[in-house]
Please model this.
Amino acid sequence: MDVLLIQNDQDLIFKSKPTKSVSKEIETQNNFASNIAKSEIASNPRLLKFIKLYFDLSSNNYLTSNSDQINLEKLVFGKFSSILNLKKVNDIRYINKFFETVNIILPKSGLYLGKVVTYPNRRSAILNKYPPILNKLLYFIDYIFSRVVPKLPILKKIYFYLTNGRGRVISRAETFGRLYSCGFEIIDEISINHSLFFVAKKVKDPCYDNNPTYAPIISLNRIGKNGKIFKVYKLRTMHPFSEYLQEYVYNKNQLKEGGKIKNDFRISPEGRIFRKFWIDELPMFINFFKGEMKLVGVRPLSEHYYSLYTKELQILRTKTKPGLIPPFYVDMPTTLEEIMASEIKYLKAYKKRPYYTDFIYFFKSLYNILIKNKRSS
Model:
């Protein structure tokens, strides 16, 4: 199979069927853009070395397009085993549509190379380019315009009207989360010249998420009483599309003390503050008043976390409603095994004396939190 090298972010989002004359024109444009892309790769030893780890560059079969008048999907479907895209994800207007089309073009296990400028990349680029003081001022202006404005409901429309979505800053978590939602898994990544390059492999069809969690208040699928899936409400503490990365981050980083994923890059800076003071959990009172949760009880888990628990504990958990205040704050376990033991102890005690058990756990938790200043970190 051939390798498709893209130099334009609109290459994979087209509507009309190409004519012979258009195809010939596109072929000329493809060769021109392909030469530019090849030159960029050849002039960057680190990038070339990284690409050679996963892509065979001995073939001359590269294709690129600068036209938005053809349906490239129909031109290349089933032909290309790999796609290299040297255009920044930041400049793609409809990112998921783009990734979904890449998925359609590639066969199973096909590879995609992409490039994105993340928050740290953008910050280091601006601070290194301009002199002190001025660089901080320019970074602040850029932060407001390219990071804050695109996420505000009203200003977002103005921003996309003015920029067509180009140049906005995207987090590493959002980029990878979008890829996972579109049927890819991340194979490798490397930062070169203030850009993050990544290699993703097609593993399944896209999920076509029509309701990504962008809002300040989000709803997450959790396992409740009788194994029923319900929506838990929380303030956003993670970057958009982070929910698709839970297994990836767990496999990469494992768990730290307290059962949380260590070095979790999905959490935003403001999210860490929300979590430290439990501000993010205030919307869970909606679940409490809806009767889906009680005041004291085991925390509602995602399907991934639930799968890490023993069968015995999984059964015990689904026999009662989850709670806002978990037994964690009574025993303060540090490992997953200790957390499971703590929950089993609580659930067995609750089964025998429900009201008394919740009463004792409630005041012991308050004592540890308010007097001993215990945190789940």
Remarks:
- The beta strands are 2-6, 80-88, 111-116, 184-192, 195-202, 217-223, 229-235, 294-296, 323-325.
